[in-house]
Write a structure and sequence with these properties.
Chain A: It is an enzyme of class 4 (lyase). Chain A: Keywords: ATP-binding, Cholesterol biosynthesis, Cholesterol metabolism, Lipid biosynthesis, Lipid metabolism, Lyase, Nucleotide-binding, Steroid biosynthesis, Steroid metabolism, Sterol biosynthesis, Sterol metabolism. Chain A: InterPro entries: GHMP_kinase_C_sf (IPR036554), Mev_decarb (IPR005935), Mev_diP_decarb (IPR029765), MVD-like_N (IPR053859), Mvd1_C (IPR041431), Ribosomal_Su5_D2-typ_SF (IPR020568), Ribsml_uS5_D2-typ_fold_subgr (IPR014721). Chain A: Pathway: Steroid biosynthesis; cholesterol biosynthesis. Chain A: This is Diphosphomevalonate decarboxylase. The structure is a homodimer. By secondary structure, chain A is α+β, with helices and mostly antiparallel strands. Chain A has 2 domains: about 190 residues, 2-Layer Sandwich (Ribosomal Protein S5, domain 2); about 180 residues, GHMP kinase, C-terminal domain (Alpha-Beta Plaits, 2-Layer Sandwich), CATH 3.30.70.890. The first copy, chain A, is about 35% helix and about 20% strand. Chain A is built from 9 helices and 17 strands. In chain A, strands 8-7-9-6-1-17 form a 6-stranded mixed β-sheet. A 5-stranded mixed β-sheet of chain A has the order 13-14-12-16-15. In chain A, strands 2-5-10-11 form a 4-stranded antiparallel β-sheet. In chain A, helix 1 runs parallel beside helix 2, helix 5 runs antiparallel to helix 6 and helix 7 crosses helix 9. The two termini of chain A are about 35 Å apart. At the A-B interface, helix 5, helix 6 and helix 7 of A face helix 5, helix 6 and helix 7 of B.
Amino acid sequence: MASEEKPLVVVTCTAPVNIAVIKYWGKRDEDLVLPINSSLSVTLHQDQLKTTTTAAISKDFTEDRIWLNGREEDVGQPRLQACLREIRRLARKRRSTGDEDPPPLSLSYKVHIASVNNFPTAAGLASSAAGHACLAYTLARVYGVDSDLSEAARRGSGSACRSLYGGFVEWQMGERADGKDSVARQVAPESHWPELRVLILVVSAERKPMGSTAGMQTSVETSPLLRFRAEAVVPGRMVEMTHCVRERDFQGFGRLTMKDSNQFHATCLDTFPPISYLSDISRRIIRLVHCFNAHHGQTKVAYTFDAGPNAVVFTLDDTVPEFVAAVRHCFPPESNGDKFLKGLPVRPASLSDELRAALDVDPTPGGVKYIIATQVGPGPQTLDDPHAHLLGPDGLPKPAA
Amino acid sequence: MASEEKPLVVVTCTAPVNIAVIKYWGKRDEDLVLPINSSLSVTLHQDQLKTTTTAAISKDFTEDRIWLNGREEDVGQPRLQACLREIRRLARKRRSTGDEDPPPLSLSYKVHIASVNNFPTAAGLASSAAGHACLAYTLARVYGVDSDLSEAARRGSGSACRSLYGGFVEWQMGERADGKDSVARQVAPESHWPELRVLILVVSAERKPMGSTAGMQTSVETSPLLRFRAEAVVPGRMVEMTHCVRERDFQGFGRLTMKDSNQFHATCLDTFPPISYLSDISRRIIRLVHCFNAHHGQTKVAYTFDAGPNAVVFTLDDTVPEFVAAVRHCFPPESNGDKLLLFWEHGHGLTLAPGCFPLKLRPPFLATVARFSRTRARLRVCVCEVKYTPRVTHRVSSLEGRNRWPYAFHWVPEPVHVPRGDLPLPSRSAAPAPGSHCCSSCVESAVCTPSVGSSGRAARLSPGF
């Protein structure tokens, strides 16, 4: 093995964003990042949203360093350290169980990491999960680790473990105190439901919402409803949601997704002091969805909201044009050259008179800044193209092209 | 008894609004109006908010009729009928258990009812409770019923039974299927906590929110969290709240009030489709309260919200000026001659022109709220007291000719001091001048009607009047 030591090992990977349809909110262990209930998510396609991370190890590096979106950050930050330590631990374990060689020098080398998102962090699009998943995955490739990475990703950011797989993913809460059984696993692959589409309605955020970590901690400490949700409601919903996904039952999937989003936000409101992630725009989007579904006499679109005002709307491909037209009608884009619709192309459509009448809302111009149209996508990827590396041969971020 | 039969019997009563601090939301029986959990409320002073109801029975009336805020409504409406039937049933029962006389003719007479609020219905100030309590109470006086009126009020509107008492009132959910033990009772009298003040922040409602009856029914049917709340959370909170009230523990009272308001709204959000009664303005008020309390290092003000965006804020009298100043700072009134009316003493009002507010925020707090973006919002503040809440007043209204139903009081926007023992008679030109009737005067200036004396004669009108 010693002859394979390279002066510089560089790996670049990408990892996706995931959106929970059965929500994770609240930890039973802050240190190991173990949740109070299981959760289930949909992995979004990396063509529209992804994190790219390059990790390089070299005997010439004097310290660990990290750059996020071009800016150097504090690598001593506990979550980064937790992830790094876990990967190194796994690397050490692998080599010591494998063959007789002593751990290679590379385990003592310092690492340089650079990471970028292809979507704005300010958009509140849960970049934390993609980022930490990518970090864990990339470091694992650099250190030659091929065991389960749930813990490494989780300890960076809980929901990051769900970004380790494509398609539909569950994070089983586990029962063990050491969290070894708190792992993510794929429920169905990305090819399972090809008609499913995801529309992200990016809403103008007037106020920076309370961060998830502090928020969920306060919820666990103060909300009686949250404990009941975790113990008595979510387990049944996990079973039901898994069933809806496997059966491609959009009615069931959609209704349950909306109910779980609402219940999550209900527990935030039951927190003390109360947390409100939904804005008036969010509520209008909710009303639009219910109105749209009532008009069609069935669940054709379904919303979910994370810890912020952006709406993620699920629907099937044949409904996308009409729903986008409905959004335009209720939230007329403020024309400014910027594209209102990004991502997958969407056929223009007009609203029927009946639907227009049914929507019956005062338009809120500019309420929705833009829409990203995407679909279900694969898990993390390793990039073979050396031009994709974010770090140069000197281990420093390449200047932006 | 027969010799006392009058051709016309008229009684007028007033009844208060109540604000729940442990919320009622959801029925276990739609017909008898039995709740899934108990609730506890604070009765507000009638000088600021009340319903006035006149009921008259006469052998000359050909049918039951009712006018609400000047407009004739359908008396066949189930809730009105439920109340009316219940009172007549109680009247029949009383007389049949009392003496040997047959039920007097008055039980077969038709009744005419007129009812007005001194605050705008559009303000979403829970007029239903005051209205139905007043109806039950007035009818009871007309028919000579003196038994518990909880059922009669409840079947009109659940929370109305809590408006049958002053001070602090609980509505015990009861266990019986027939609802006989689902009654209101006073927890502490109005004199118990003289320093307590209630501020109502009336928010301009952009959208008519979903009505309570349909809303709570949907919640019961669809929200898992609501069932848990009713079974596992509220019972303990009722005990705790009763304790806080009895001990005059404002910290405990305030915190629990806020938590219960939030939990109620949480169950609305957990409903499907979800119900959102809180608007962005409501949420800003919530943040202001938490900011204010954090600044002072203790719970000095506490909010609660019913099924609408208006905020009801509890505080002690010494905190009112500073909190109102904070509200004005964060929600500057649209300059337009807005008046902010504050009641400091029982029955006396104080009208302040904008900018003349006596209290300026002190710099430390000003810095704390400085990061609030000031919101241009139509917000009106009305301050009420809890103390001195007369349960109901008897008052005789003069009836100027039997064919002049309904008549309306001539409301004036400025407070009027009315000497005790004397009652304002409606003027002959009873139609309110445009712009000066109750609703717009309340919204424009947050004034509520002139105070009427707290007690009056209860004499019946002589025949031939």
